[in-house]
Amino acid sequence: MRLAGPADLPEVMALLDARIRWLRQRGSEQWNTGRNFETGIVNAVGRRDTWLLRDDAVAIATLTLTPEGDPDFWTPEELTEPALYLGKMASAVGRSGEGLGSLMLSWAQDWAARSGFDSLRWDAWRTNERLQNYYRSLGGQYIRTVHAAHRWSGALFQIPVRRVVNLYDCVVTYSSSRTGAVDAPTFATVIAGSAGKRQAIK
Known about the structure:
The protein is an alpha+beta fold.
C-alpha cells in the first residue's frame, strides 16, 4: 500500500471506472466518470489522501482517507469529533471473492488508529442496499440516511478504529500522509495472496 501520486492517477481511475461499469451492469447509478468526479480524484491525489494497493506491479484496490468530513452529510458537532473519513474505495473487478474490501477496511481502521482518530466514517449510495448490507457485514454501524439536495449518496456509516493484530503480515505501508500514522511501517509492502502466499509489492 502506498500513497498515489500524479503518475498513479490513470491506474486509480481505471479501478474506479471498471467498478462503475460493474455497478451499471447491476442497475446502480453510483458514481460517474464525469468531469466533477475526475476532478475530485485529481484533487484527492494532490492532497496526498488517495492510496493504491498493488499486488506485484498490478494495482488491485484504491481508497481515499481525509480528516475533513462532508458538511452535506455530517452535523457541525460530528465534524468536530476526531474521525477519519473514507471514500472512493474500489477493488479490481477481476479480484472479486478475495476479501479485498474487508482487507482495505481493516487497513483503514488500523491507519486511523495509528493516526490518533477515534472512528472511521463514510457515506454510501442511498439506493445501493446491497452495498449497505455489505458494510454492515463488515461491522459498519449505520448512523442515518441524509437526503441532501443534488446528492445521491447519504447513507452514513462509522466503525471504531482499532489496531489490527498481524495486519502487516498482509499489508505493509510505504510513507505516510497528512493524517499522520508516524509509527506505521515504511518498508516494502507485502500482501497475502489468495492461496495464502506472501507476494512482494513493488
